[in-house]
Amino acid sequence: MNFEKSGSLGLVKPHCPKQPWVMATFADDERLLAKGAIPSGLVVHLRQCPSCRAVADKLQRATSQLQRLATLGVPETLQHQGDLRVTQAIREGGRLTRRYETPDLEESACSHRHWPLSTLRWPLAAAAVLMVGVGVASWFSAADENARPTAITANEPVWPFDDDVFGDAAQTNPSERVRTGEAGSVDAPPGMAGAAGSKVVTTSAARRHRHRPVVWYSSHIEAAMTDSPGTIQAAVVMPHRRDTKRHTNWRDLFDRPGGFLFTTSPRDKE
Amino acid sequence: MENAALAAQTMIKPAEGDQSSKRHRWILRVMETEGPHILALLRRLLSNEADVLDAYQDCFCKLATFPGRHGISSVRAYIYRTASNIGIEIIRTRARRSGHLRKIAAQQGNLVDEPGPSDPDDAELDILREAIADLPAHLRNVIHLRDFCGFSYKELAAILNIDPATARVYRRHAIVKLSSVLPREADV
Fold it and tell me: How far apart are CA A88 and CA A161, in angstroms?
C-alpha cells in the first residue's frame, strides 16, 4: 500500500492555507476532547471551503473506523483461553507452537540483546581506560623528565670545560659538593668571581644533550641576587633549554632539584 | 464459563514447590497485568480468535524463552512490541496468501474461491488493518497503544520511551496517512 507523499513530513500538501488547522483539529483526539467540539470558526470555514471539507471528511472517516476497531471487545472466554494456553505452554518449557519471523522492533526494546561481546563490555571499557591512563601517565612522565633540570654528576665532566668562558680545567666541579638531584649551596669557583652580580652561568641539559655550558645574562637572576645580597652571587642551573624559556620565576627554578646556587664569600665579592 | 475461569486461575497461581512455576512467576505477573491489554491489541489487530490465541501464546512464550531476562531493558516495551510484531506478521501473511490465491484464481479461471469477509464493514476494517500494518513503525506503535490498547499518551510515551507530545504528533501523522489511504465512502 503506497502512501501519498509530498512535503517534508510526507503529508498531503495543503491546497487551502487553513488545511493544517483542519488536520490538526480532526486528527488530534486530545484537542477535540479538550475543546469539546469543533471550533465555530472552523465550522464556518468548512462550509465555505470544499477542499478542507474533503480533508475533514477523510480524517473523520479514518478516525471513526479506528474507533470502530477500538470498540471491538475481548470476550471473557478468549481471555481465559489465552491464559490457559500460555500457562500450559510455559509449564511445558515455553515451546512455541508457531514461529513467526518477527521483523525488527523487539531488538530495540531490549538493549544489549544478542550482542556477543556484551559480557566483555565492562572489562573492555576498563582496559581502554587503563590504556588511556597509562598513556597519559607516560606522557606526563616524559614531559616531566624533559622539564627536570639535569643534575651534574661527579663522574661527568660537565663544567667547567677546558675552553669555558671562566675556563680553568684545574678547577674542581662545584657540583661534586652538591648531591645529585638536589638544590644546595656551594662556594663559587674562582672563575665565577668576576661574574658576581651580573652574570649567571647556566648549562643546559648537558648530560643528555651534550650541550656546551652557556653564559646567560638574566635580569631575573639579577633581581634574585638583589633580593638576597651577599648570599647569591651567581647561579648554575641545569634546566632543559625549553624549560629556561618557559620559566619566568627563576627563584622557583633554583629551588627545583638539579639547580643549585653558589654563595660567595665577601672576599670573592670584593 | 465459570469452569474455564477457575481453571485459568488455578493455572496462573503456581503450585507450592513447583520450580518451573517459581522460575516463571514473573511472566505470570506480567500476564496478569498486561495480558488483557495485549489480548485487546491482538483482537483488534487480527479479529480472528484462533490467530489471536496463537499470537498471545507466542508472545509470552517468546518472553519465557528469552535468554536472560535482565537483558530486557523494559519488559512492558518488549511484550507490547512482540505482540505488535506478531500481529503485523500474521496480517502480512494473510495478505500474501490472499494475493497468491488471487493470482491462482486469475490463472485458473476462478476455480479457487478466495475466502474473504462477506460483510462490507469487515472488509473496510481489514483494509484499515492492512493500512495500519503498512504505516511506519513509529506511527504504528502509537496507533496500537493508543487506539487498540487504550493507553493515555503519557502511558504509551513511557512504553515507547518518547515524549507524550511526540506521541500525540505521531498519532496525528498516522491519522492523516490513514485518511489518505482509506477509500472514500462512495468507493466502498
Answer: 97
Residues of B whose CB is below 8 A from A90: 20, 24, 27-28, 60-61, 64
Chain B nearest-CA distance from A129, in A, is 25
Residues B12, A83: C-beta atoms closer than 8 Å: yes
Distance from CA of B112 to the nearest CA of A (A): 24
Q: Do the chains contact at B180 and A96, CB–CB below 8 Å?
A: no
Cell of B146: 493508543
On the CB side of B21, CA atoms within 13 Å amount to 11
B53 touches chain A (CB under 8 A): yes
ipTM of the complex: 0.75
Query: What is d(CA B28, CA B11) in angstroms, rounded to the nearest whole number?
Result: 10
The whole-model pTM stands at 0.52
Smallest Cα distance from B145 to chain A, Å: 11
Closest CA to B150 of B34, B53, B59, B72: B34
B187 to chain A, any CB pair closer than 8 A? The answer is no
Tens of pLDDT, residues B146-183? 888 888 888 888 888 888 888 888 988 888 888 888 77
Whether B114 has its CB under 8 Å from any CB of chain A: the answer is no
Q: Three-state secondary structure along chain A? A: CCCCCCCCCCCCCCCCCCHHHHHHHHHCHHHHHHHCCCCHHHHHHHHHCHHHHHHHHHHHHHHHHHHHHHCCCCCHHHHHHHHHHHHHHHHCCCCCCCCCCCCCHHHHHCCCCCCCCHHHHHHHHHHHHHHHHHHHHHHHHHHHHHHCCCCCCCCCCCCCCCCCCCCCCCCCCHHHHCCCCCCCEEECCHHHHHHCCCCEEEECCHHHHCCCEEEECCHHHHHHHHHCCCCEEEEEECCCHHHHHHCCCHHHHHHCCCCEEEECCHHHHC
* B123, B116 Cβ separation under 8 angstroms: yes
- Please tell me what DSSP assigns to residue B160: H
Does the CB of B144 have a partner CB in chain A at under 8 Å? no
Query: Which of A110, A112, A117 should we substitute to test contact with B (largest number of B Cβ atoms within 10 Å)?
Result: A110
B73 shares contact with chain A (CB less than 8 Å):
yes
- The most confident of A174-183, A223-232, A246-255, B126-135, by mean pLDDT: B126-135
Would an 8 Å CB–CB cutoff place B130 in contact with chain A? yes
End-to-end, the C-alpha distance of chain B in Å comes to 39
Smallest Cβ distance to B180: which of A12, A81, A94? Answer: A12
Is pLDDT of B44 > 70?
yes
